[in-house]
Amino acid sequence: MKFSFKNDYSEGCHPNILQALLQYNLDQQAGYGEDEYSLKAKALIKEKINNKNSEVFLVSGGTQANLIVISSILKPYQCVISASTGHILNNETGAIEATGHKVLSIETEDGKLRPSDIIPMLESHRNVPHQVMPKLVYISNSTELGTIYKKQELEELSSFCKQNKLYLFMDGARLGHGLTSEISDLTLENVALLTDVFYLGGTKNGALIGEAIIINNAALQEDFAFNIKQKGALLAKGRLLGIQFMELMKDNLYFDLASHANQQAMKIKNAMKKKGVEFLSDTYTNQIFPILHNDLIAVLSEHFEFYVWKKTDDQFSAIRLITSWNTGDEAVNHFIDIIEKEL
Q1: What residues contact residue 27 under an 8 Å CB cut-off, 6+ apart?
Q2: pTM of the complete model beyond 0.70
Q3: Contact present, 328 and 308 (Cβ < 8 Å)
């Protein structure tokens, strides 16, 4: 069996979650997220973001979270601004457009959006009322390229959005990895303060399924539950999500798991840097994009699963390696051994 570096959701879930699911399995509980575990999970999340006025909603997946948030926030004539690498643009089968909301794409080198990127898009949509109205800025942390937002960057973007009456929505499928990156100076409290909406991704960080949507803007909280129900995302057995997030929020487990994934990726990155390997982007999270000779990629493919991300020329390609909360030293050391042998 090959070691897989394809994604961070190939694993099952952390043993604490399985144990808790078994422990509470025979307890009778209220449905639709009103069980004691979901209520406890939401209280723990509010405690960690230090914002009692935020509202927390648990759903099963990232695409579902993006679809429900964006479709509930925007009026029919409003649209989303996203980096060209954004998950909503490339990996969600047109889910946002299917609700009638256009996604405006901006090319960026590192997958991040800055005010200077957004200004031309706003200026090119001044033909009122003949064009769609930009209303929501969609970002990810970490991004699809493994890069992260620093605190000053998010502060500047948040301020810009407020000045221009734009909502700021952060896709947090890998938020744990972004916040525990060795170069991050951003905290969960900062994110809650600076965004209108964000979510904590569980699927890619130790849960079986689950994302926790956190709405910080009070104006967007009212009637949000109706959107969850209408989109088929309100689980009758909401305890399945509640138990998982209750366990992830205990004893810093959520962030410990993300930190481990980052550290394993950095071991591989640092070993390759010593061998002179270049990277498509300079990342410090659990996603890395080394540029390797195609012959070496063929050798590695015999032992590991990963995606060939981008062809850089006739002989070299960038691959994407993703480590997870359960990536062990055996897989990492085996990869490094081959790199040191072949380079």
Answers
A1: none
A2: yes
A3: no
